[in-house]
Amino acid sequence: MVETPLSFWIGFNFAVIVLLVLDLTVLNRKQHVASMLESILTTLVWVTLAVGFGGWVTYEEGWEKGSEFFAGYVIEYSLSVDNLFLFVMIFASFQIAQEQQRRLLFWGVIGALLMRGAMIGAGTALLDRFEWVIYLFGAYILYAGVGMLRHKAGAEIKVERHWVMRFSQRFLPLSRHNDGLHFFVREEGRLKFTRLFIVLLMVELTDLVFALDSIPAIFGVTTDPFIVYTSNVCAILGLRSLYFVLAGAVKNLVYLHIGLAVVLIFIGMKMVCGGFFHVSTVASLTIVGTILGVSVVASLVKTAGKRG
C-alpha cells in the first residue's frame, strides 16, 4: 500500500478545523431557525467542497483513488440518511426546538469525527496485520444488510424505555428544567445534566451504531486509510445541513431503507467474494448510485398521491 504523504493528512485536518471554527463562530454565531433555502444552500456548499476535494484527490493520486473517494463518499452520505430519520424521531420524542437541534447536531458532528477517526484507525491496523479480517467485515455487512431489509422503516422509538434514558435517570444527576441550549446547569450547588445532554448522548450512540455499518462498507471499496477517512469526514460535515433539508421529507422516502439494505448486501458480497472475482470501483459506484436512485424515485412515485 502506498502511504499518503503526511502533508496531505495535516492539510486536510487543518482545513476541517478551519471550517468547523468558521461554522461555529461566524456562520452560526447567533442561534436561529434555518430556513429551507439556507439549509439547501449550505448542503450544496458542503457537497461542492467534497466534490472539489475529490477532484483534487483525482488530480494528485489518479482516477482510481478519486473514484474510490467518491464511492466512499456516496456510501457514507446515503447511509447517513437512515441515521437522520432516527434523529428526527429522537428530537420529536424529546420535543427539541430547531435552534436546539442545530446545537445538538454541531456537537454530534464533533463527536462523530472523533469516534470515526478512532474506528478507521483501528480497522486499518487490523487489515494491515490480518488481511483475512476483510472477510469478517464483509460477512458483518451482509448480516447488517439483511437485517435492514427485515427492519420496519419508521419504527417508533420508545424514549422512556431506551437504555440510555434508564441509565441517565438512575446514575446521573439530572436537572428538572429544560435549560435552553445548555448541556449542564448548576442547581442547589450541584452540577447537573440537562435534557439536552441526554439527547446528545443518544445522538452520539446512534451515530456509533451506524458507523459500525458504514465504515466497514467503505473498506469494501478501498483499504486506503486516507481515502476511507476523508470520504467519511466529508460526508459527516454535510450531515447537519442535510438533516434540515430532509427532516420533513424523509418520511416520504419509504423505499430508501430497502435501497440502503441492497447497497450493504452488494458491498458485503463484494468483500466476501473478493478473492474470486473483482468489481472495479467505477462499477461499484455506478451500481450503488443506480440502487439508491431507483429507491428514491420509487419512493417519490409511491408517495406522490399522499403529498398531493
Please characterize this protein's 3D structure.
The structure is a single chain. This protein is mainly alpha-helical. It has one domain. 74% of the residues lie in helices and 3% in strands. A hairpin with a 2-residue loop joins strand 1 and strand 2. 33% of the residues are buried.
Short summary:
The protein contains 11 helices and 2 strands.
Our Rg estimate from Cα atoms comes to 20 Å
The ordered string of helix (H) and strand (E) elements is HHHHHHEEHHHHH
What count of helical segments does DSSP give? Answer: 11
> Helices and strands: which structural class?
mainly alpha
The separation of the N and C termini measures 53 Å
Helix content: over 70%
Strand order of the largest sheet: 1-2
Show unreliable segments.
none
Strand content is: under 5%
Got a strand count?
2
Largest sheet: 2 strands, antiparallel
Number of domains: 1
Shape: globular
How would you state the average pLDDT, rounded?
80
